[in-house]
C-alpha cells in the first residue's frame, strides 16, 4: 500500500525538474530576438575524455577521473592532493585566492573577495612576484575601491596595452567602481583613472568583465537581467560608458574575436552571439544586434568562451561552470550554421556518475567538479588546453586534433581542510562553507534521475548529513591556468597562488605560445 505514494512523489519530482529545465532553456531562447537564429544541441555526452597515463605518479587519482571521494575527504587523504605529470614548483597561500586572478610578465594578481579582503594587513588585490617560480612572494596590494570591493570575475589583463582592470563586485553583482592600471612595471601597477570609476562611480553593473583584444574597450557584464556595458578606455585616465543594453535572461563571461567585432557571451543555457562591431569602430550611436544563440541542456550556466582557429577555420571553446556540461568545441565558420565538434568531460561529470558526484561532494559546499576558467596555449591551432576544474583541480588536455582529445596531466592541490575565515578571509570556499550542499548540480542530477541514469541510494555516503557547514576537504580551483612554457601559473581559492610544472614528456610548448583566455 506504500508504493503508490512513493510513485506519486517520484512523478512530482520528475515534473518539477522537467519544468525547471524547460524554464531555463526557454528563458534563454526567448531572450534572443526573432531575427536571430537559435540553435539547440540536445546531446548530453555519455563519454569522458581519455585519461592521462599516470603510472609513475604515486599521488594519482585511484577512482573515477576527477573524483575526490567522500572517504578520501574524511580520512585526510585529500590533504596530500593528487597529481599526474604535473607538480608544484612554488606556492604562496597568503589569505586565499579569491575567485579569478590574472597574470602578466613575472607577476600574478590575486582576485579579491569582499568583505574578507579588507581584514588583512594589505587589503585589496595582492601583487605576487613570480620572478623565481620556486619562491613566489606577495610584494604589495592594490587598494582602490574597486579592488577592496571584491573583483569577483572581473580582474583581467590586456597584454597588448599592458593594462590591468577590474570592477567592484561585493557579492555576485556589483558595479560603479572601476580601476585601470598601467602594469608595464608589473610589481608596481600605476593607477591611471583617478577620477571616473574611482573617485566618481560610473553607471554600469557587473559580475564578469574583460577587455576587447585591442584593449580600447572594457566590457562589464552583469548576471540577471543580462545587463552588458561597454566602457571606452582608449584614454584609460578618463573611462566613459559608450553603450549599454540587455542581451539575454542571464549574462556571464564572454570571448571576443581577434578583430573585436563579435562577442560570444555566456547565458543561462549556452552562448549568445552579438555583433559588437559598431562599438569597436566607435559609431556615434552604436547598435549591438543579436546574431545567434547556441543552447544545450547540460551545463546550466556557461562561464566563458575562447575564440580559436583550426586550419584557418574559426572555432570556439566554451566552458560550462554548472551542471556537469564540461567543455564544448564548435566550428563557427558560419556563425548561423555552427557545428558541434567535440566535448571534454571527466568521468565524474558523466550522467551515469552524478550519484557518485553528489555522494563525494556533500560537505564541500556549493561547487563540486566542473570547469570554470580555461586557457589555450595559443589562439591559432592550439595544442593544449588548461582548465581550473573546481574540486578536481587543474586539468590539462591535448587538443591538437579535436577528434582525439585526451587528458595529459592534472594537479589537484592539497586541501586546506578545516581552515577558517581567520585563516583564509579571501577564500570564497571558506565564505560559502556555511552550507555543505553542492547546489549547482541540481538540474543535471535531476535530469539524470529522470533518465534513469543514477540511483538515489548511491548518493548516500559518510558525508550525507553535512547539509550545514562544509569542511573544505578539497580546494576550489577557479582561476585560468596561464601558460608559461612548461609552467602553468594559477590561483586556487584556499591554496592561493601556484606555479606548476608540466612534464616535458607530455607537453612541448610551441615556439609561438601565447596563453589566451578569450
Please describe the structure with a list of short key phrases separated by commas or semicolons:
single chain; 518 residues; alpha+beta; five-stranded mixed β-sheet; five-stranded antiparallel β-sheet; globular; disordered N terminus
Report on this structure.
The chain is built from 7 helices and 32 strands. The strands form 8 sheets. Strands 1-21-20-19-18 form a 5-stranded mixed β-sheet, covered by helices on one side. The chain has a 5-stranded antiparallel β-sheet with strand order 2-29-28-27-26, with no helix packed on it. Strand 23 and strand 24 (about 325-330) form a beta hairpin. The chain has helices at about 5-30, 70-75, 145-150, 275-280, 355-360, 430, 440-450, and strands at about 35-40, 80-85, 85-90, 100-105, 105-110, 125-130, 135-140, 155-160, 165, 175, 180, 190, 205, 210, 215-220, 225-230, 240-245, 255, 260-265, 270-275, 290-295, 300-310, 315-320, 325-330, 340-345, 375, 385-390, 395-400, 405-410, 480-485, 485-490, 495-500. By secondary structure, it is of the alpha+beta class. It starts with a helix and ends in a 16-residue tail after the last strand. It is globular, with a radius of gyration of 22 Å.
Amino acid at each position: 500500500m506504500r508504493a503508490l505514494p512513493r510513485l506519486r512523489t517520484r512523478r512530482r519530482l520528475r515534473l518539477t525538474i522537467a519544468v525547471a529545465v524547460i524554464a531555463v532553456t526557454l528563458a534563454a531562447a526567448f531572450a534572443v530576438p526573432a531575427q536571430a537564429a537559435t540553435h539547440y544541441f540536445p546531446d548530453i555526452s555519455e563519454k569522458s575524455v581519455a585519461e592521462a597515463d599516470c603510472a609513475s605518479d604515486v599521488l594519482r587519482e585511484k577512482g573515477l577521473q576527477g573524483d575526490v571521494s567522500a572517504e578520501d575527504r574524511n580520512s585526510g587523504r585529500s590533504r596530500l592532493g593528487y597529481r599526474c605529470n604535473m607538480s608544484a614548483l612554488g606556492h604562496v597561500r597568503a589569505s586565499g585566492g579569491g575567485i579569478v586572478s590574472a597574470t602578466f610578465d613575472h607577476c600574478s594578481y590575486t582576485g579579491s573577495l569582499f568583505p574578507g579582503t579588507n581584514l588583512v594587513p594589505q587589503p585589496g588585490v595582492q601583487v605576487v612576484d613570480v620572478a623565481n617560480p620556486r619562491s613566489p612572494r606577495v610584494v604589495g596590494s592594490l587598494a582602490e575601491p574597486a579592488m577592496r570591493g571584491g573583483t569577483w570575475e572581473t580582474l583581467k589583463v590586456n597584454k597588448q596595452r599592458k593594462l590591468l582592470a577590474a570592477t567592484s563586485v561585493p557579492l555576485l553583482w556589483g558595479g560603479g567602481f572601476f580601476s585601470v592600471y598601467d602594469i608595464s612595471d608589473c610589481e608596481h601597477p600605476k593607477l591611471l583613472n583617478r577620477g571616473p570609476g574611482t573617485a566618481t562611480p560610473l553607471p554600469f553593473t557587473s559580475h564578469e568583465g574583460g577587455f576587447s583584444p585591442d584593449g580600447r574597450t572594457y566590457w562589464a557584464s552583469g548576471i540577471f537581467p543580462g545587463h552588458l556595458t561597454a566602457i571606452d578606455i582608449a584614454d584609460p585616465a578618463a573611462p566613459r560608458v559608450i553603450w549599454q543594453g540587455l542581451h539575454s535572461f542571464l549574462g556571464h563571461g564572454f570571448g571576443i574575436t581577434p578583430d573585436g567585432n563579435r562577442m560570444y557571451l555566456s547565458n543561462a543555457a549556452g552562448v549568445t552571439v552579438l555583433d559588437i562591431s559598431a562599438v569597436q569602430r566607435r559609431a556615434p550611436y552604436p547598435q549591438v544586434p543579436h546574431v545567434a544563440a547556441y543552447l544545450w541542456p547540460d551545463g546550466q550556466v556557461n562561464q566563458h568562451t575562447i575564440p580559436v582557429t583550426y586550419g584557418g577555420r574559426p572555432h570556439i571553446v566554451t566552458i560550462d561552470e554548472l551542471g556537469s556540461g564540461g567543455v564544448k568545441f564548435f566550428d563557427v565558420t558560419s556563425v548561423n550554421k555552427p557545428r558541434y565538434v567535440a566535448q571534454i568531460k571527466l568521468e565524474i561529470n558523466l550522467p551515469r556518475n552524478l550519484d557518485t558526484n553528489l555522494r563525494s561532494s556533500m560537505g564541500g559546499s556549493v561547487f563540486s567538479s566542473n570547469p570554470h576558467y580555461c586557457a589555450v596555449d595559443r589562439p591559432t591551432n592550439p595544442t593544449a588546453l588548461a582548465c581550473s576544474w573546481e574540486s578536481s583541480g587543474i586539468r590539462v588536455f591535448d587538443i591538437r586534433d579535436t577528434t582525439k582529445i585526451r587528458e595529459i596531466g592534472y594537479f589537484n592541490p592539497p586541501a586546506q581542510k578545516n581552515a577558517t575565515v581567520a585563516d583564509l578571509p579571501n577564500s570564497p570556499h571558506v565564505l560559502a562553507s556555511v552550507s555543505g550542499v553542492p547546489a549547482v548540480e541540481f538540474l543535471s542530477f535531476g535530469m539524470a534521475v529522470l533518465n534513469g541514469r543514477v540511483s538515489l541510494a548511491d548518493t548516500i555516503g559518510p558525508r550525507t548529513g553535512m547539509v550545514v557547514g562544509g569542511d573544505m576537504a578539497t580546494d576550489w580551483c577557479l582561476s585560468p591556468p596561464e601558460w608559461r612554457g612548461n609552467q602553468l601559473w594559477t590561483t586556487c581559492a584556499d591554496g592561493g597562488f601556484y606555479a606548476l610544472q608540466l612534464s616535458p614528456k607530455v607537453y612541448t610548448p610551441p615556439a609561438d605560445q601565447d596563453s589566451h583566455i578569450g
